[in-house]
Each structure stands twice: as C-alpha cells, then as structure tokens.
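Record filed here:
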Amino acid sequence: MFDVNSSKLPNLHCAVPFMKPVHMRSPVPRGRRHTLPASEFRSLSPEDAISVFEIEREAFISVSGECPLHLDEVRHFLTLCPELSLGWFEEGRLVAFIIGSLWDQERLTMDALTLHKPHGTTVHIHVLAVHRTFRQQGKGSILMWRYLQYLRCLPYVRRTVLMCEDFLVPFYQKSGFKVQGPSDIAVGPLTFIEMFYPVRGHAFMRRNSGW
C-alpha cells in the first residue's frame, strides 16, 4: 500500500524520454488508420480510473483484503495530480501503473492516504500494481525505475516515500528504497514499513534486470 502551481509543472524536455504526458500525445491524422504502439508509458487521466481500479482490486484484495485506493480516490488523485502517475500500456491495454501525490512532512500520517499537498516536495507513492497476466515478468521493477527517473526531472521533488508490508521490503530495496522504520499507519490488522528514496542527490540508478 503504498491544483498544482504553474511553477511545479514538469520539465517536459527531460520527462519525455520516460513518459509522455497526456496533453502531449500527438493527434491521430484524419483519414489514416491508427496503429496502437506496442508499448507506451504515459501519465494517467481520470478516464483510466476504472482500468486502474480493476487491476488494483484484483492484486490487493486476494492478498490483504484491502485496496490502497478506492475508485473515488483513484479518480481524486488522477484529477489533482495526474503528472505523478505512470501507466504502462501494451497495445492500448493498461498492464501496470503507479499513482502518487505530493506530501509535505517527513513521515506519512493518515492524512497522506487521501490528501495531495501541492506545495510538498515529497512524492507519496500510494500504489504500484501489475495486471495478473503480466506478473513475474519484471514489469513492476521496470515501471518503478522509469517512474523514479521521471521524478528526477521534476525540480520540486526531493524524495519519494511509500509504505508496504514486510514481504515487499526486498523488492523496493532493489529499486533503491531505504527502510525508514515502522509506519505509524495501520489499516485494520495490517501494519506497514515506511521506506524512502532520495530523488535529489541520488546517483543515477541502473535498472535491476533480475526483477
């Protein structure tokens, strides 16, 4: 489980190699057949919310019985801060995604689960999920790698935080996250470990192809 000021818009020249924001996608010329790209990374929009929630629900309900974000919360964050999301599409089909928002404190609190703080410098990753038919292919770690490199292009982002269950700690450590300690947040019987990644001042990271 894991209205932005104009001064906080991403440096698009830097961001384009990793993902293409929705508003930059080229229109389809009239009279020409549109062929979907085999693989595309882009920020998500509220129109993607149902696909996002279907993948999330299947991924989390069977394991923990809880979804990090409910459908209305998915729409909420994709409306307020779509630039802090990243979706991986294969031939137009969403296969994996990350949703984040801005936070303005050192540690996460219950408010961080539902709020977006426009003046924050920390990205809180709410959820990373992969469609069941695309798991065990390394897509989760590849997507996280791309997301972290994209965040390095946003001048206002200083660090990234998330919370996860114990068994996921090694996965996030392979992506460069460090353990900050037990989270103060609990959801029912579930407890979490809080982890962070220093976006600024962190050496350029190579993707670990073993995940």
Observations:
- The two ends are 19 Å apart (CA to CA).
- Strands lie at 39-42, 85-90, 93-103, 122-130, 159-164, 178-187, 190-197.
- The longest strand covers residues 93-103.
- Residues 39-157 form a domain with the Aminopeptidase fold (CATH 3.40.630.30).
